[in-house]
Amino acid sequence: MPKTVLVVEDDAMNMKLFHDILESQGLVCLPAIDGQTALALVRQQHADLILMDVQLPDISGLDLTRTIKNDSALRHIPIIAVTASAMRGDEERVMASGCDAYVSKPFPMMDLVGLIRAMLGDRKFAHA
Ligand code: MN
């Protein structure tokens, strides 16, 4: 059974990129273009991992992360936050929201793939 990654991303080009990367890894991409859609999907469907854009049109990805991590039925799902910039203080702010890892755009795709694999508990990639 392929693992499913909920991708919360409002930018269509980034969504396509994430979709293609996940598909190339044999993973299922569950797309959500805003926070409300993401919250509905994560409550209705199974997700093994969440890729969370921090800047969304309706609510902050960090607020959404806090909501998910405050929900006992959902908090086990690992969340990788994706931010547009590596601004000073961002990492602390992002990690304080409760997400499990953090990447800053632009990032090497193979780094992201390795991180996704590691967080899905894929031993083959865990030490890459
Ligand atoms: Mn965005």
Question: Can you walk me through this structure?
Answer:
Helix content is 42%, strand content 19%. The protein has 128 residues and is an alpha/beta fold. Strands 2-1-3-4-5 form a 5-stranded parallel β-sheet, sandwiched between helices. The structure holds manganese (II) ion (MN).
Summarize the structure.
The chain is α/β, with parallel strands linked by helices and 128 residues long. It has helices spanning 12-24, 35-44, 61-69, 90-96, 109-119, 123-126, and strands at 4-8, 28-32, 49-53, 79-83, 101-104.
List keywords for this structure.
about 130 residues, alpha/beta, 6 helices, 5 strands, about 20% strand, binds manganese (II) ion
Biggest pleated sheet:
5 strands, parallel
Report the sheet-strand fraction.
15-25%
Q: In what order do the strands lie side by side in the largest sheet?
A: 2-1-3-4-5
Radius of gyration: 13 Å
Give the helix level as a range of percent: 40-55%
